[in-house]
Specification:
The complex is a heterodimer of chains A (111) and B (113). Chain A has 111 residues and is mainly β. Chain A is built from no helices and 10 strands. In chain A, a hairpin with a 6-residue loop joins strand 3 and strand 4. The relative contact order of chain A is 0.33. Classes of the chains: A mainly beta (111), B mainly beta (113).
Chain lengths: 111, 113
């Protein structure tokens, strides 16, 4: 069943393409950022994180870029696969135990 | 499998009924959280427990109560359910909160009619 809204921004890509999902965050004092993936009917799953003293971090097929000047975060997925289809959320840490989530972007991957 | 377990997975309540959502983690995490997820909105924090024996309000605590029963378990109670509480509820745990990552349960879909 669907666990998120019907009006999320949607990114449609072909299998094998690179995907870039963007997120604008609100608090310039946020010191830590996370990307989560949520498949239909499941809970969010950690993908990658980055601290505010970094501007880039790479994982397996994923890269997170942080631009503190414009308060922008992006998630790049290389060689996107159908299994990457999901809703992706960014989250920022605004303070003690205060992780704030964005509304999400739906990624649709066509074979 | 290690992780966060939520029960029940689905529930339908009538307005005014009460119920408790259960959450347990087996990762020896100190911090636990309850979020709700509504269409078009991000996850919103209802309550959290930074460590065993403590609980604090999050962004949307009204209409809810919580109990940190022990280090493993963190329950969420709706004393008098309202249609506005129709949502998907997620429990999460973390070793100590940010910058440590969160592990989420699979959610409880609650409908209040």
């Amino acid at each position: 069943g669907e666990s998120v809204g019907l009006h999320l921004p949607t990114l449609s890509v072909q299998e094998g393409d690179n995907s870039i999902i963007n997120c604008a965050y609100s608090n310039s004092a946020s010191d830590y950022f996370i990307w989560y993936k949520q498949e239909s009917g499941k809970g969010p799953q950690f993908i990658i994180d980055i601290r505010s003293n970094m501007d880039k971090r790479q994982g397996q097929r994923v890269t997170v870029l942080l631009n503190k000047t414009v308060k922008h975060l992006s998630l790049q997925i290389a060689a996107t696969q159908p299994g990457d289809s999901a809703v992706y959320f960014c989250a920022e840490n605004e303070g003690f135990q205060k992780l704030v989530f964005g509304t999400g972007t739906r990624l649709l991957v066509s074979p | 499998n290690a992780g966060v377990t939520q029960t029940p997975k689905f529930q339908v309540l009538k307005t005014g009924q009460s119920m408790t959502l259960q959450c347990a983690q087996d990762m020896n995490h100190n911090s636990m959280y309850w979020y709700r997820q509504d269409p078009g909105m991000g996850l919103r924090l209802i309550y959290y427990s930074a460590s065993e024996g403590t609980t604090d309000k999050g962004e949307v605590p009204n209409g809810y109560n919580v109990s940190r029963l022990n280090k493993r378990e963190f329950s969420l109670r709706l004393e008098s359910a309202a249609p506005s509480q129709t949502s998907v509820y997620f429990c999460a745990s973390s070793e100590r909160g940010p910058p440590y990552g969160y592990t989420f349960g699979s959610g409880t879909r609650l409908t209040v009619v």
